[in-house]
Amino acid sequence: MKSASPPLMRRKLTPLENYFSVRLKKDLIRGLGKHSHHRAAVKMLPTFVRATPDGTEKGDYLALDLGGTNFRVLYVRVVEEQQKVVKMDSKICSIPQEMMLGTGEQLFDHIAQCLGEFLESQDLKGQTLPLGFTFSFPCEQKEIDKSILIRWTKGFSCSGVEGQDVVKLLKEAIHRRGDYDIGSVAMVNDTVGTMMSCGYRDQSCEIGMIIGTGTNACYMEEIKNVKRVEGEDGRMCINTEWGGFGDDGSLKDILTEFDEVVDQTSINPGVHTFEKMISGMYLGEIVRLLLVKMAEDKLLFKGETSEALLTPGQFETKYISEIEDGLENAQKILTALGLNWDPVDACVVRLVCDTISSRSARLCAAALATISNRIRVNRGLDHLKTTVGVDGTVYRKHPNFSEELQAAVRLLAPKCDITFLVSEDGSGKGAAMVTAVAQRIWLPGCMLSFIFLPIFVYI
């Protein structure tokens, strides 16, 4: 039998969330600045997306989704009459650890190989289809088909890619094979894809948020506030790259000793501070470090540990969800980790997991509330009604995360009526939808300008 989770109504917000929100608000403004964005921790990257689907899109598209240890290839059909995006088929390909740390050429050759195998399995090699490329790493978008990788995150450190155009690297890998080709490419960040896929179903969707292996958000900003680009009218989707919040030391006073160890032992110390506090790639390790500390202080397991508990990465983030879902799960996991536990230990471990996941949900809520409040103030509204398109395994699979996040957002943004819409494959179908909108707006004989309008960017 599952034991009840701590009631959300008993969890009152602390001054930390408001303190956090004030700091993030300043960083958002710094990232939008013409002269300040270079030193901003929150990059606030212009995406040039200035429109959402209108329901008339149609056609067949390919989509690539690279954002973690696996990547997907999809064949997608957009049906105008039914106003829906149909995934015809897809393939998941793994990326070996050594390839994540190898050369960029090896990585893109692997992607091109998997794409070729998929096209052959679908009997599509003879066609040249447009492709939406979701590349979920910090990039500076120059054009619809040109995106420069700023830095690797999520455990990747492939050489020869940072500072390079990832679309060019993909096309070069395909050309090295020589057995198939692709059409026009639309680069899509996963948060933008999430917003666009949800916007197809809900026209009020103006925020996209990912909380999974990593974390990020995008939103529709008034273009007059985007000082890096020329223009006064309309709005532009901004890819915040909020995972970098705190990289300038602004969160140092709220980091725990466990956050600091996670950062120091990561492959990118000092980078993506906020992401390391809240995302799925790191939550399990934070819990592991805390349990080791409590055992060493003789507060758990009679002061004993195990080889598994002392091994980095052995306490997987999925264990947090499973343990919070019931004490029986906690007991099984502790046994599998070789720990000598008693019922009190199991309860304490569950409380530790709940504390770390709750902190993640609240900090994520504080960041989301900051963006929502900014949109409302930007538009001079007393009350904002908007929708957040959301995706990610932490949000989807943790038993309490989504509920706690939504409850905290309501408290932190009381003048915003926010609906949460879980994306139907934003990074896959969403990428295809971005490409579909591009095709709809593409005028014969013109460059594929899409909603990526030819706006001058101040570099």
From TrEMBL:
<dbReference type="Pfam" id="PF03727">
    <property type="entry name" value="Hexokinase_2"/>
</dbReference>
<dbReference type="InterPro" id="IPR001312">
    <property type="entry name" value="Hexokinase"/>
</dbReference>
<feature type="transmembrane region" description="Helical">
    <location>
        <begin position="441"/>
        <end position="458"/>
    </location>
</feature>
<dbReference type="GO" id="GO:0005739">
    <property type="term" value="C:mitochondrion"/>
</dbReference>
<dbReference type="GO" id="GO:0008865">
    <property type="term" value="F:fructokinase activity"/>
</dbReference>
<feature type="domain" description="Hexokinase C-terminal">
    <location>
        <begin position="206"/>
        <end position="437"/>
    </location>
</feature>
<keyword id="KW-0812">Transmembrane</keyword>
<dbReference type="GO" id="GO:0006096">
    <property type="term" value="P:glycolytic process"/>
</dbReference>
<keyword id="KW-0418">Kinase</keyword>
<dbReference type="GO" id="GO:0005536">
    <property type="term" value="F:D-glucose binding"/>
</dbReference>
<keyword id="KW-0067">ATP-binding</keyword>
<comment type="similarity">
    <text>Belongs to the hexokinase family.</text>
</comment>
<feature type="domain" description="Hexokinase N-terminal">
    <location>
        <begin position="23"/>
        <end position="200"/>
    </location>
</feature>
<keyword id="KW-0547">Nucleotide-binding</keyword>
<dbReference type="GO" id="GO:0005829">
    <property type="term" value="C:cytosol"/>
</dbReference>
<comment type="pathway">
    <text>Carbohydrate metabolism; hexose metabolism.</text>
</comment>
<dbReference type="InterPro" id="IPR043129">
    <property type="entry name" value="ATPase_NBD"/>
</dbReference>
<dbReference type="InterPro" id="IPR019807">
    <property type="entry name" value="Hexokinase_BS"/>
</dbReference>
<dbReference type="InterPro" id="IPR022672">
    <property type="entry name" value="Hexokinase_N"/>
</dbReference>
<comment type="pathway">
    <text>Carbohydrate degradation; glycolysis; D-glyceraldehyde 3-phosphate and glycerone phosphate from D-glucose: step 1/4.</text>
</comment>
<dbReference type="Pfam" id="PF00349">
    <property type="entry name" value="Hexokinase_1"/>
</dbReference>
<dbReference type="GO" id="GO:0005524">
    <property type="term" value="F:ATP binding"/>
</dbReference>
<keyword id="KW-0472">Membrane</keyword>
<keyword id="KW-0808">Transferase</keyword>
<dbReference type="GO" id="GO:0001678">
    <property type="term" value="P:intracellular glucose homeostasis"/>
</dbReference>
<dbReference type="GO" id="GO:0006006">
    <property type="term" value="P:glucose metabolic process"/>
</dbReference>
<protein>
    <recommendedName>
        <fullName>Phosphotransferase</fullName>
        <ecNumber>2.7.1.-</ecNumber>
    </recommendedName>
</protein>
<keyword id="KW-1133">Transmembrane helix</keyword>
<keyword id="KW-0324">Glycolysis</keyword>
<dbReference type="GO" id="GO:0004340">
    <property type="term" value="F:glucokinase activity"/>
</dbReference>
<dbReference type="InterPro" id="IPR022673">
    <property type="entry name" value="Hexokinase_C"/>
</dbReference>
